[in-house]
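User: Hi! Is it possible to get a structure for several chains at once, not just one? Here's what I have:
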Amino acid sequence: MNKRIKINRLLNAESPMKRVLVKGWVRTRRDSKTFSFIEINDGSCLRNMQIVADASLPDYEEVGKISTGSAVSVSGALVESKGGGQKWEILADEITVIGTAPETYPLQKKRHTDEYLRTIAHLRPRTNKYGAVFRIRSELSWAVHKFFKEKGFHHIHTPILTGSDCEGAGSLFRVTALDLENPPKQDGKIDFSEDFFGTEANLTVSGQLSAEMFALSLGDVYTFGPAFRAENSNTRRHAAEFWMVEPEMAFCDIHGDMDLAEELIRCLVGHALRECAEDLELFAKFVDKSLMTTLEGIVQNEFVRLPYRDAVSILQKASQPFEYPVEFGTDLQTEHERYLTEKHFKKPLIVYDYPKSIKPFYMRVNDDGDTVGAMDALVPGIGEIIGGSAREERPDVLKHRMLELGLPEKDYWWYLESRIFGSAPHSGFGLGFERLMMLVTGVNNIRDVVPFPRTPKNIEF
RNA sequence: UCCCCAGUAGCUCAGUAGGCAGAGCAGAUGGCUGUUAACCAUCGGGUCCGCGGUUCAAGUCCGUGCUGGGGAGCCA
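Assistant: Yes, the chains can be modeled jointly so their relative placement is included. Here is the combined structure:
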């Protein structure tokens, strides 16, 4: 018996083949008097393979019972199709049902809402749209590694479990091996010295601080892994578990940081356009009619670079009213970011040099003393897709900032030591991988670009 | 967490003025055709999200809870 061949290979065949074997899931069956058409999909591509099953087949009775959703194995000849819709089809000489699907199979041969498909997240990758989403996700994931590999970056596996609530930003998921029914206590409080690590532990919110240590050793590094936020965020762009790409570069300032951010996004979008054309076509057709214009615009045009001070004055001069007032020292609200990227410039932009007062301790203080080398990349439809900064490499300035913000030095002793022993300017950023997926596919809910999304009150599957 | 909207057949939805619960698709059965989300006919299919209230009468009005969605905040 020959080996199974993926449908995408067969659909791109140059010539007929006498004997091929395919395996996949039935999308639809159309019966004639003397034969049946069965369309099967094996996930290798968006398109299905049409199987022609003639009534003369030994098990033709069985063929009539093959239902939508069943897993089947088909062997036969790859021949040019007599019908109009496809170039190739398989003239079956043997069809075996590997796994049946009763009529309660929830996926029908019709359009389903995204909300309904979320309730059957275990089956939704069998639909055209979600199959395409996750093929693109896989391709983009690979493209991230390719991008950094070609630039000489090293991939670092930073820890998922962390011992301190670094950055103090966002609520953390506590990790414990203690008996929650009866935890050990000391002076009325839970005694974490009895816990697995002998101290409090959490899931990481970012690999940045670890990555910095490796940038100051291996030069240019990146991490690509999950991050966890226990924020009670109920929006279409937040998940409790998401993936971040976090490059960190030694001897690099905020401008080099922005250069890399822009190059990364444009390169990844270009990669998707080249390598996922067929799947992207589905999104351009059914999800976002302007998708191709948006994506090609990103690849072809440079991003706007806009200092925060200039962003403020543009917003102050804007003809439309804002709910939140804008002045130096306030953070840009969603409405402001959307105005800048969707109305004023109508393309991606990077805002940089934010006020010190609204940014974390590790961002490098600029010479003006009021701003830090922070940057946010904003794209139409999604908002912030990248947040990054130059890191404060001067130990005295860093300590001063920690004091201002009330962060205990002892918790960051190793971070501070990196500034004492051979400190060097360095910069990095975090790219929200799901937000990139939303940008590339036009899908407007983060829950629909994650295989099994985790959001407040939702961890089924 | 706050504001707004929704919840009716397996799925997508309609349900008028408070008066017997509907369609398309899916499923079953039969027919027809190199078909393309095939087509035609027949049939089966309901805790109208839960609880409480108003009313002779509630899918419909009121209160409340749950679930889902959109927006805001937090951020990637």
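The domain at 7-99 of chain A is CATH 2.40.50.140 (OB fold (Dihydrolipoamide Acetyltransferase, E2P)). The radius of gyration of chain A is 27 Å.

User: Great, thank you!
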